[in-house]
Amino acid sequence: MLFTHYMKLDFPATKQVRHYLANDVALKAVRSGAPLPDGAVLFVEVFQAKLDGAGNPVKGPDGLFEKDKLLFFTAMERQAGWGDAIPPELRNADWRYALFAPDGSVRAGVSEARCLACHKPKDAESYLFTYPQLAEKARASR
User: Is 70 exceeded by the pLDDT of residue 130?
Assistant: First the structure.
């Protein structure tokens, strides 16, 4: 599966930098103006920012933090029927969410309900906070 990097964002309070990626299914749908369909997968890689001798994040040529070690990553994927067992007040169509350790193992003790509740208000944008940035990248990569 091919993924496209579509956004990078600093989190100064935690000295993290996050890289956002989407698969071709998501890019194709957004490019055509359609909602994200079954088969869409999005990742966020969360890195510790590279720090200077004083403990401040080092910025790269783009003005954003340089990444150091991978701390964890998140994923959201949509497949037919995945939302069926989720209560309507939390259901995000057929999206499911997970948090992973750097080795790819699922991080224990993380409640998917928090992800569902947080993303629920973004239903008009396929439950995606970064839909505008994804759409911009999709249009630019025609």
Answer: yes
Q: What is the pLDDT of residues 35-57, one digit of tens each?
A: 999 999 999 999 999 999 999 99
At residue 58, the pLDDT reads 98
The answer as to whether 142 is a domain residue is no
Concatenated DSSP letters for 32-101?
A: TTPPP-TT-EEEEEEEEEPB-TTSPBPB-TTSSBPEEEEEEEEEEEE-TTTTTTS-TTT--TTEEEEEE-
How many distinct structural domains can be found in the chain? 1
CA separation for the pair 54, 68 (Å, rounded):
16
CATH of the domain at 22: 3.50.70.20
The mean pLDDT value for 4-31 works out to 97
Closest by CA to 3, choosing from 51, 47, 58, 40, is 40
In one-letter notation, the amino acid at residue 67 is K
**Residue 141 included in any domain:** no
